[in-house]
Structures are given as structure tokens and as C-alpha cells.
Amino acid sequence: MKVTSLKGTRDFDPLQVCRRNFIIDNIKEVFCQFGFVPIQTPAMEHLDVLLGKYGTEGDQLVFKIINSGDFLSKCSSEDFTNGSRSVLPKITKKGLRYDLTVPFARYVVNHQHELYFPFKRYQIQPVWRADRPQKGRYQEFYQCDADVIGTESSICETEIIWMISEVFKKLGITDYQILINNRKLLAAIAEKLGMADHLQTLCVAIDKLDKIGQQKVLEELSDKGFSTASLEILQPILDLTKGTKDHWEFLKAYLVDIDSAQKGFEELQEIMDNLAALKLDKVPLKFDPLLARGLNYYTGPIFEVQILNSKVGSVSGGGRYDNLTEVFGLKGISGVGFSFGMDRLYDAMDELNLFPVLNANNTTVLIVNFGLEGHMERLQQLQLLRNYNINAELYPDATKPKKQLTYANKKQIPWVVFIGEHELQQQVALVKNMKNGTQEEVKLSQLPTYFDERARKLD
Amino acid sequence: MKVTSLKGTRDFDPLQVCRRNFIIDNIKEVFCQFGFVPIQTPAMEHLDVLLGKYGTEGDQLVFKIINSGDFLSKCSSEDFTNGSRSVLPKITKKGLRYDLTVPFARYVVNHQHELYFPFKRYQIQPVWRADRPQKGRYQEFYQCDADVIGTESSICETEIIWMISEVFKKLGITDYQILINNRKLLAAIAEKLGMADHLQTLCVAIDKLDKIGQQKVLEELSDKGFSTASLEILQPILDLTKGTKDHWEFLKAYLVDIDSAQKGFEELQEIMDNLAALKLDKVPLKFDPLLARGLNYYTGPIFEVQILNSKVGSVSGGGRYDNLTEVFGLKGISGVGFSFGMDRLYDAMDELNLFPVLNANNTTVLIVNFGLEGHMERLQQLQLLRNYNINAELYPDATKPKKQLTYANKKQIPWVVFIGEHELQQQVALVKNMKNGTQEEVKLSQLPTYFDERARKLD
Prior knowledge:
BirA Bifunctional Protein, domain 2; eight-stranded mixed β-sheet; 18 helices
């Protein structure tokens, strides 16, 4: 029988859990400071809530759950002959969430009458994607999302960049850059190419530029109906990666004849003006006209955060979406949000040695077990210590003291207490300091205060 | 398109998340105090890790995930004709975890060389069961588990009961009872019936006694091969629910001729002696020879916690298992653990009005938005407040102040700050106390310290 976790998923040991909580707690603290409140949604959603929001590839990566009971009952042999695609919709109705944004949009529509707008929510939960497992890419990973819905104000985008810089300050991450672009500018480019209706195709292709290179992007667009003439117009945009041109000035000139581009520039300018007023000028914000983001639903400013000098790459991203709640029946509500990929942040911090010293074990005192003789008294001492809020353990078995000391060492327990026959007669305990090896006798009646003082100093 | 969550699953609003965290944080605190360390395992496991551990009914309640891609490729038309049972193993390899104990056993075997024994771990994560949704029964719910593995010491059972009483003290739950029994006594009963090999069948039937009644339990056992003679011997045990006999003394007499019962009684006696030494005599522990627990893997003491005067019923349970890691290839390791059903605790606390006043919103100050004029100055004031660790928001849109005040009220934000044209000229802010409606002018330069002092008082 298999004893490993599934490929693409991981077990977390106590230290890893502590480190993960260290990241999550810091993110939570910043979200709270900025006025965001927590919600949670279920791991499973109706499949039709999930599908159609992440593009064709995304739909395939949604984990689907087999209906309970006689799940084949709705399948005809014709379905079976037609294969997986025909059978699939008849044997599954539920999927695991792929991100937190779509469940959030569903939540907002579902609970619109209980909410006050603008609604600022944060959500920290795992998501699942049936991606091919590889180093740094997991099938189960945590997202930490913050979204504001019900306002078009550029203050929100400003605050997202501000929050990213605050979180990174807390985590000790100094070398990173925040790429920013606007889907409205990508739309203007599509318009200039005469392909206004194919914005999504353009974004999906450009999003892969880093991975597959210029040639393949051009081929993909050509395959999807972009004419040679249109791709020639696109060429200078793709070439931006190579040159040292000022991207902002270049794009302004390039899109000078496209009226709709104006709003895209204005929105970004507003955000940058806000950041300048906040003197957040050390925040490494970089305009990148080739930042596209794969997801379907963005309509305004988009951003992505990369940690430099790390193999991890992008650890956060987000953007504005104007129509996401519309598919669930609520029109005219603009939202903007972003997500930290917690697992990637973890990997980057691990790689860059940024974690502080954390100890998963909170035990302050281990009482050595000597068996039946004095058992009840040792139990009572354990209770007295715990009543003083001192985290204490009584070793469960009367094994050799050496083994018990090894346990204390492995768990990094700072003090070990011996209360044997001799000590009980004298009403004392022998206290061993595990850090420096010193021992001293302490009156049993003074044991709790002895550790109470010392445990405070440890904190 | 559906906008609700799936039946049996729930969305949690900010207050609910806070209340859930209140329960979880208190449980965590007790687990830590007793020396338990956290681990986490993935939501999905290999199906063969999960199946065969929870009985036939349990296996059916495990959510199964469809293989990615062309999942039907391994199915012949013969499989299809044979129906769901033949097709199922060919289209799924993964399931959602059903509890935290089995993944923990798998974890222990997988990581045995990194662990020190006895290993005390806690784990707080959701689990999923394809139960028919009904009031108080969910398809997704949180378990809070603590287990000790690698020791047979009765100190562990003692501490479990001790921890339950500590957690309930923290949560304000006073009316409850902890039922305790020993699978070894149920095994002795099976032996007395001449059905020693059918312990599991006996346990599964007895476990339903409350739900289906004595008659149906007898029918079920009869169907499963228990002779009339054996059921007659069982009768006085089933009748215990009716009478007022001392269960302990009765069972001792009843099992007097079964040698193997001795160890069962001794184990329980040890636990009770320990509790007596700790003067935990207010812990409402009750010996219940009819407590059976449905799960396959228990072999020693078992317990279950019921909240009295509540519709919720059982909120916690657990027991000792001697062979759970054996199925994963690691023999001779005894473990014991228990689990709080967090959602049931929540429902009970809600029903009994035990939650303290909690506010999901942490914002202390809302700055009113007056549009472009003075925008940058207000942003800068927001930043100054946040630099003083005061949780503050700038309302994102320049809507009517009345609407912005309503937002502050809904979010229970205690102070609203007006910095309009007039105030900027005077370098002051008008501060409105939302609780008593009073207003006062504060110099802009003194705003952070003004709130710093007041926010401290709020805590």
C-alpha cells in the first residue's frame, strides 16, 4: 500500500506548518490593517460555477468529483462510445475550486443583500489544479486573496501595491518587482491590429511569451486567425522585450491613434500619482506592456509580482475585473483584487534563507517518568505547572531516563524535571537546564513559580 | 447559473469566520499546552490509503476524483455493461480525506525516520464525507485532532479527557458528559457470545442502538449470522439502557468467566485513578458499556463527548488503535487520539449562546473621501495612521458623506475623520466618535497619537 502523498501534494511537518503560519499571519495582519474582513467558501463548488472562467486549459485543470452512488445511471452506451467528453458531464456535478476569485464572485452575488459595498474581503484557503506536478508547481496550494468589490476607485489598486510592499517588508523580502499593465491597453493594441474581438486570444498568447518565445507566439496567433499584416503591426510590441526603449512613451506613441487607449493610460497614471504622494517610491513598480495574465476575467489594471534572484518567479498577481459577478446575475459591479501564492512565497523565502528561527514545539518542561512509584505526585506536579500556563509534559512511559532526555532534546524542551523516590522524600525536584547542562534542586512547592519566571524570560 | 454553495457545504461570513477561529484558537492553545505539535496533510490521498479503513458504508462516503484527461481509456465496454462498480476503480485514483486519523497513520509510516516517538501531533483541517446533507450534518467540516503515537501509556487517555475539559472550560461549555468504554470489553462480550471473530459487526450494530432501537439491532445481528442463543446472551447488555444498574459492576459480573475482559477493565481503572489523583472529579465521565464507535480501527479505550441540553449531540470522540499503521507497513505501534468536530461545537455554542462578542472588522478609523481636492493629503494622513499601527481606511469613492458614515456604521468603525477643504486650511481634522456622536477638532499633526491612545483603550 502506498504511504506517500499524491504527486503534486505534500505533507507538512511541524516546522513547515509553523513557517507557513508565519507567512499567513503576516499577510493577515496587513489585510486587517487595510480594512479587509475574512470570508471562507467551500472546497467544492457546482461545476458550472467554476467552468468557463479560466479559459479552455483552465477548465481541464479543474478536479472533478464523481457523483455518489450509481453514477453511470444517466449514461447511455452511446455516450460511452462517444468517449470521455460525452460521459464527463453525466457523471460529475462538483469540482474543487481552482482559485478564490470566482468563488468570491459567486459569494458576492449569493449574499449581496447581507453585504455592504464597497466590500473588502480577504480569503486564505487552499485551491486545487490538475497541473502536471513539477518542482515548485503543486496540485494543492494556498492562495491569500484580498479583493475590493463595488468601486472603481484607483485607491484600491494603489492599496494593493502598498499592501504587497508592507507584506514583503514584514517577510524580509527586499529584491522584487511589481509589473503593471492595463488590459485596456492590450485591448487598444488588439484594436490597432484590427482584432478587437480577439483580445482574449491575444492575451493568452502574449502571456506565454516568456515560456515559448516570440516565434511560437506569432505562430499561435497566426493559427488563431491573426493575419500577417496584423502580426507585422504587433511586431514592435513583441520586440519591446529586447530593446531599452521607455515602454510608457513608446506605447503612448504607438497607440496615439487609438482613442480607447486613453483611459488605460489615465488609470495607470492615477495609481502612480497616488504612490508618489505616499512616497512609496522605493516600491519597485515597472510598467510592462507585455504583461497579459492568463485569466479571462480581467478588464482593467493588472499586476504581477516577481521575486528577483530566486528560481520561484511570480509569487503574486491580480487585477481589475468589471464583469465577473455578471455571469452570476449581478451587473455593473467592478472589483479588483490580488492573490499571494503562499507556497511560492514559502519556496522563495526558503531559498533566500529569510525565515526567522521558529520552533514548532512549545513545551517548556518535561517531567521524567519513573513508573508507578510517585506516579500520582508527578501527575499532580504536571497539573500545577499547567495551571500556571506553563506548557509541560510528563513522558508517557517509564523508559530509561536517557531515552527521555533524548526526547527532550529532539523537541528542544529547555528544562527536564526529575521527581524520583529520593526527591519525593525531600519534597524537591531536580531541574536540568538542557541548554547548558546545569542542574539544581528546587522545592516542589516552588516549582511553578520557578518556571513561570524563566518561561517569561524565554519569550 | 447557480449562485449558492453546494448542498451540505457552506459559505462563512466574516463574523462566522471569527467565531470559527475563536474555537480553533482555543483548541490549539490547549493542544500546545499539552505538548502537541502541528502537521498538515493534503486534501487528496491515494484512494487505497483511504478505502477499507472506515467500513463498507464509509468507503461509499469517500468523495472520489475523476482521473485527468481521457479518463475512460482504461474502461472496456464490458466494464460499462457491468456498471458503476466495474467502472469506478478504472476512472479514479484519488479521494478526499474522510478523517484526519488515517492520513496521520499514513504520515507516520511515510516519515517514521524523521519522527521521534512518542509523537504527539495535532491537526486541524477540513474533511469531506458524501453523507446525505441534513441539519447539522455537513459534507465539508473541520476536525481538530490530537493523537499520541508510539506509547501504550494510559497517561495519554487521561490527558485526552483532561484536554477536553480544558477546552470546554475555555469555550464556556459546562453541561456535557464524556462516555467511555473499551473495545476490549466489547471483544469480551463477542467472545462470550461465541462470536469473537465478529467484533466489528457487533460494534457497527451496537453503535446504531440510539438511532434504530434494540429490535433493529437484533435483526441486523441475526441477519449477519448471530444465533438466537447468542442474542439471548447479549440481551442483558442491550437492556442496560433501560435499567438503573451500576454498569461497571454489572459488566464485571457478566464477564467474570471471560479472562480477556480483565485487561479491558484494568485499562479503564488506570485512567480513572489518574483522573482522581488530578482531582478532575468534576469532569463528567461516565462508563457506557454500549458505547461502540463505528470506525474499524479502535482496539482499546474509546470515548465520545456529548453536549447536554443541545440538539447537536456528540461533538468529540476518539480512542486507542493498535494496528492502524500496520496496514501501511509499520507494526507494533499503538496510538490514541481524539477529534473535536469543530462545526458541531460551533452549532452547539451558537444554540447555547456561548459566543463572546466578536467583531470581524478591525478598522479603527475611516477617513471620509471628498474627491480630488485634498486627495493626496488624505492619502498621506491614512499612511501616517497606518505607520502608527492604527487600522485605517480611506473610503474609496467621493460619494455623499452620509453613505460613507453608513459604511462606517455597518463595519462598526468607532471613529470617522473629515479632512475637507476647510480643515486642510486650518491643518486640522474633524473627528466624529461613532458611538456617542460627539465631534471634535484635532490638529493633523496630532492625529496619529490621538488615535493611538484611544485604540489602546479599545483593546
